[in-house]
Amino acid sequence: MERRILRTECPDAKGLIAGITGTCFKYQYNIIKNDQFSTFDDSRFFMRTELEGDFSTADSFIEELRHVIPDGGICKLMPIQRKKVLVLVTKEAHVLGDLLIKSYAGALPIDIVGVIGNYDKLEDLTRKFDIPFVTVSHEGLSREEHEARMLEAISRFEFDYVVLAKYMRILTPNFVNSFPNGSLINIHHSFLPAFIGAKPYQQAFNRGVKIIGATAHFVTNDLDEGPIIAQDVIKVNHNYSAESMAKAGRDVERQVLVRALSRVVDGKVFIHGNKTVVF
Amino acid sequence: MERRILRTECPDAKGLIAGITGTCFKYQYNIIKNDQFSTFDDSRFFMRTELEGDFSTADSFIEELRHVIPDGGICKLMPIQRKKVLVLVTKEAHVLGDLLIKSYAGALPIDIVGVIGNYDKLEDLTRKFDIPFVTVSHEGLSREEHEARMLEAISRFEFDYVVLAKYMRILTPNFVNSFPNGSLINIHHSFLPAFIGAKPYQQAFNRGVKIIGATAHFVTNDLDEGPIIAQDVIKVNHNYSAESMAKAGRDVERQVLVRALSRVVDGKVFIHGNKTVVF
Amino acid sequence: MERRILRTECPDAKGLIAGITGTCFKYQYNIIKNDQFSTFDDSRFFMRTELEGDFSTADSFIEELRHVIPDGGICKLMPIQRKKVLVLVTKEAHVLGDLLIKSYAGALPIDIVGVIGNYDKLEDLTRKFDIPFVTVSHEGLSREEHEARMLEAISRFEFDYVVLAKYMRILTPNFVNSFPNGSLINIHHSFLPAFIGAKPYQQAFNRGVKIIGATAHFVTNDLDEGPIIAQDVIKVNHNYSAESMAKAGRDVERQVLVRALSRVVDGKVFIHGNKTVVF
Amino acid sequence: MERRILRTECPDAKGLIAGITGTCFKYQYNIIKNDQFSTFDDSRFFMRTELEGDFSTADSFIEELRHVIPDGGICKLMPIQRKKVLVLVTKEAHVLGDLLIKSYAGALPIDIVGVIGNYDKLEDLTRKFDIPFVTVSHEGLSREEHEARMLEAISRFEFDYVVLAKYMRILTPNFVNSFPNGSLINIHHSFLPAFIGAKPYQQAFNRGVKIIGATAHFVTNDLDEGPIIAQDVIKVNHNYSAESMAKAGRDVERQVLVRALSRVVDGKVFIHGNKTVVF
């Protein structure tokens, strides 16, 4: 008996859950777990169904489902398997290190297919895990030239997701548009929408906040404005300098990114405009 | 259009969700929200479905559902309305005070029908809100005599739930058995199962823990061992004496109780042996 | 033996702790608890010392301390006693209700001397606790006229602090300047600096954040930009509408305000520019 | 200018802070940060003072301090430098992996001098970081024989602390007594004192708790009863099996251990009976 994830997304309508689960029952797919949600403002229906059964009949199952859901709907059957992840970095080791260990130890169902940095600082760490590292220096290059080289380096890898693991470069629309929507994930070192932009810990220190945080989000062409997947915070106080906030924040950054990534690769995240539904 | 909560509980079986939601669809009950869960160890199925529709046909709907679910199953349609709560107290004001304010301000859909204390200390506070207060002193009485008087006082009220809001008396099996299972809710001032029994904050201080907590649970005849509904904690450190732990703990106690109670009155809590399923 | 709080604030200098604690020792004041901090950017020294002793010699003690600390420093001996608090409200009961209960039950060392609202909605609740309530309606009045009437009403009370307990009016500089710096405390229903301004829960819903929060701060003439005293957050998800975010947020609002207020009345908060030091 | 940590511990007495900080001032040691605490029950005084100055006169400074503090007191001047840590493991990679990354990346001021396991499962991971790994299998050996071999292997390393990073063996008093008090640190996979002993996650699942946690503590000859250094928790619900609790708990385990270890190596932890003071 195999397991797969059915992801359904469509305009809401009466009888949708009955229709979809009835079709699952007809194909003898047992429902292990089911989550659904209909949005408040525009009645968009999202459902994630964990199924167990014999999927040799999957094609006709999906075909039949297409008649159950309203026009403009999508339903996909996703295998449960490790996803391929490409990681972009600059100099900070903590997020990459956590991904490497978690992938190595089987704590996160991802294979890191490669790491690309605009510095070579994390090459040594990456290679310990027998993962290719490519340095694409930005020095002396225009943003466009550097991105062209990055895209060339990226094109050498096959991947499901690209994770910006503290990749400290501003991205142009052209770069972002080179990736399918929902495949580019960033960890931002602030509790968005507070402290958008550069040096958020310095901004937080200057403002005298008592809590700092991190935000994992899909990257879109609105800088730091893509759909938020996960956020978390830690408490700080007057004893924290901007530097010690940054140090304390690192632990939140990697936790939030890992939590977001594990939900994404598990098919639990749906994008809805500039928001997410996370089951 | 009215809203009601359908609560289903039965042995798990293939096609249950399809069967139940199909019946809802047949009766033109729109599903606003649906949660279901099947237990790991004994495959017991629980489902809470928020429905919207015309419930003049509710009786035949329930009758039809009884044929959909396996033998030994239960399905009930619950109106969404304020619940009647009787509160038992001793001397501490914080939990009762929070319930009074939240009931008064409409933040919790409960009506407090009365408060009974083994001291009269909270009579003044209770009467400010025009709620009857009965003092049933335990002084000079055996436990059995006192409980008999308590039960007599309790019998004068009509209620859905009895909340022990820091009622600091040990209950006999006879007392507990006087109430339907799931109608007696206690707030225990420790993070169960740590520090069962008397003076948990003193125990926590003596042990030097760095976190203290509170637990809301249904009362059964296993002392402090009933099904846990909600728990929460706060951090403490060496600066806390047993007394300041107790003071800090009060805020967690009332929050945990209110969270538990709001889930219970909303039909979100199912009892399963010594555990709960909380949607 | 009496207890008092010594609050010292001055430019940092070598030997300050030795000088101050040496003077305490000379006067036979026992140090129960001591906290000090020197700021990172401008080396400002803050110290809070809980003392036990015979304070009949307090005047010469303070006189002597003035020679120990650098010019431009302040040192004050504060009695440990209940503070007088005036509360301003609009229509929401939860923050006021919590203050009333906590003051009544002795959980917060404050006496609420009065409540002033621009609606009369909370008069009934306030009077239950035998506290005067004054309604100063803003209807048909300019902002300036309304504030003039508010200030007149406020002037009838004697108080140490004014707490804006969900007082939903924008304040003019003239109004703010009528109070000593550090005596006007507001609870803002967002995690500042995110969602400054109106309808922060609607803003949070629109942005799709996964965490919402509240901020207690001193009021200055920078709207929502005064020194932050305390902040806290709770997690939300796609199931929350703007309304249910607001409801969930209320519990954080009152907790954060109570935490801030209890620190302030305990002499634990120092203002330093647009920030606070909270011991 | 060098920095050192002064750690003082003695019976409480009047004028201690004045005496110690006065001596610091006399030696022109500037106080960067100071924390002190006196216990509630037995008036034991603890103080940690971060000093900056010229420590060529450190010996006479300490000699002079010995006359300032009461008999039976201890004062030590600790250099700020990376500590040597030996790690014991069984099969789980997450805690070790985190220590390796944090040590490698400079996020924790420790050098891991070696790793010893009763299985060889983590040898590959350890050697990636060029750190020696020794396997000391327990198979076919009595507990005493195995411990004798462990102690022999341990004796080959020079270290400040031994960290039990999910070393799943019960220790005999003889083994524990081979290490100085305060040098053996364990991470226990439950929120002590709940679920002492084997399989805490299974116990937590069986009890139906809504929160699970982890505890870092010094090891003494009371099993799971040594002084607690740090604890933290995460929320769980009915969706968690014992296995998924264990998986979720791993993140808390490593965070709690790292937090505890970073405090210990920073001289911030004092042992007081079966408790700790953590500045």
TrEMBL record, chains A, B, C, D:
<keyword id="KW-0554">One-carbon metabolism</keyword>
<protein>
    <recommendedName>
        <fullName>Formyltetrahydrofolate deformylase</fullName>
        <ecNumber>3.5.1.10</ecNumber>
    </recommendedName>
</protein>
<dbReference type="GO" id="GO:0006189">
    <property type="term" value="P:'de novo' IMP biosynthetic process"/>
</dbReference>
<feature type="domain" description="ACT">
    <location>
        <begin position="5"/>
        <end position="82"/>
    </location>
</feature>
<dbReference type="InterPro" id="IPR036477">
    <property type="entry name" value="Formyl_transf_N_sf"/>
</dbReference>
<dbReference type="GO" id="GO:0006730">
    <property type="term" value="P:one-carbon metabolic process"/>
</dbReference>
<feature type="active site">
    <location>
        <position position="224"/>
    </location>
</feature>
<comment type="function">
    <text>Catalyzes the hydrolysis of 10-formyltetrahydrofolate (formyl-FH4) to formate and tetrahydrofolate (FH4).</text>
</comment>
<comment type="pathway">
    <text>Purine metabolism; IMP biosynthesis via de novo pathway; formate from 10-formyl-5,6,7,8-tetrahydrofolate: step 1/1.</text>
</comment>
<dbReference type="InterPro" id="IPR004810">
    <property type="entry name" value="PurU"/>
</dbReference>
<comment type="similarity">
    <text>Belongs to the PurU family.</text>
</comment>
<dbReference type="Pfam" id="PF01842">
    <property type="entry name" value="ACT"/>
</dbReference>
<dbReference type="Pfam" id="PF00551">
    <property type="entry name" value="Formyl_trans_N"/>
</dbReference>
<keyword id="KW-0378">Hydrolase</keyword>
<keyword id="KW-0658">Purine biosynthesis</keyword>
<dbReference type="GO" id="GO:0008864">
    <property type="term" value="F:formyltetrahydrofolate deformylase activity"/>
</dbReference>
<dbReference type="InterPro" id="IPR002912">
    <property type="entry name" value="ACT_dom"/>
</dbReference>
<dbReference type="InterPro" id="IPR044074">
    <property type="entry name" value="PurU_ACT"/>
</dbReference>
<dbReference type="InterPro" id="IPR045865">
    <property type="entry name" value="ACT-like_dom_sf"/>
</dbReference>
<dbReference type="InterPro" id="IPR002376">
    <property type="entry name" value="Formyl_transf_N"/>
</dbReference>
